[in-house]
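Q: Got a minute? One more chain.
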Amino acid sequence: MEKASHKTETGEKIEVTVPPPAPSGLMAGSHPDQKSFMKMTDLLVIDKPAGLTVHPAPGHPSHTLVNAVLSHLSDMSDEKRR
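A: Always. Here it is, folded:
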């Protein structure tokens, strides 16, 4: 591709290579309010408490909803989590 502003024309072919995702480094972790989770076969219902950080970010590397969900679903294989 020449540049981002390049306009494609009819019949022009574009090849895209998508690199594999980098490991997330997310770790399972507990959260004191585990009763907020209700797990069914293919559904997880979460009653998220106010103030709970949703995902790791600068200043909140752990103790987030994502860490708690990973911990709660730790019995699932990696393939089922995708």
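A: The longest strand covers residues 37-39.
Q: Perfect, thanks.
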